[in-house]
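Case study 2.
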Amino acid sequence: MGQLGQELKIVALLFPQIIFQFTDRNQLDITDETMVAEAIAQSDAEFIINTAAYTAVDKAESDRDAAFAINEKGAALLAKACAQHGKILIHISTDFVFDGSKNTPYKISDTCVPLGVYGESKRKGEEQIQALLAEHTIIRTSWLYSNSVNNFYKTMTRLGKERPALNVVYDQVGTPTYARDLAQAICQIILAEQRHYGPYHYSNEGVCSWYDFAHSIMQLQGLACKVHPIESFEYPTPAKRPAYSVLDKRSLRDDYQIAIDHWQDALKRCINDATA
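Prediction:
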């Protein structure tokens, strides 16, 4: 189970009015039509939350079929089964559906232009859901991290304890998102008195570069590791990243009255949660 699924398990304790039924890839392969159809048909759940995704951004460039199988086909099968059995689908998507060419926050109405296979496969999954199921909520998020599984925050923490210095890109800008905050937002959406469908954006508030994020991770944990800013061309990757990934969350705040913390405050809580 990925980091958002793990965080939903933790957050579930705060929302006893929601009865969760958790599953993982060993119990349910979302690329298997028969398994998906049977699982949805047998479930008495009103909402289906799809946190499953192929998220290895660089590997996806050479593993296109696997990325599309999970991110497009899996999303389509879930949407089809939800439509047949009257379920509401909450699907997690990504800022990578945008190319990062803007310099103002991306609105839900902005045109999607993915740069690579990962973003393209996630966008195709969105399109499948939109075509097959009216009762859906797509939540695009960015720079997800937690204490649960491997991610940028955990990698920086580990390397910060092992190395005297690190180079981190400063010309890619976005907003880190604490997965526990996203998990709580999903629960608030489920419990809302009024239903709203379609795409939404959720990240923590504020804007930073990966360098800024790494620097804060070191500083807040008292790690002596120095972080040096570099440009993206100095750290080449198979997949091109959006240079600007800030998401406009106005519609989510307006429709669901969800309070959203600044990314630095969320990071402090994540660090504290690790030792709680």
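The longest helix spans residues 64-85.
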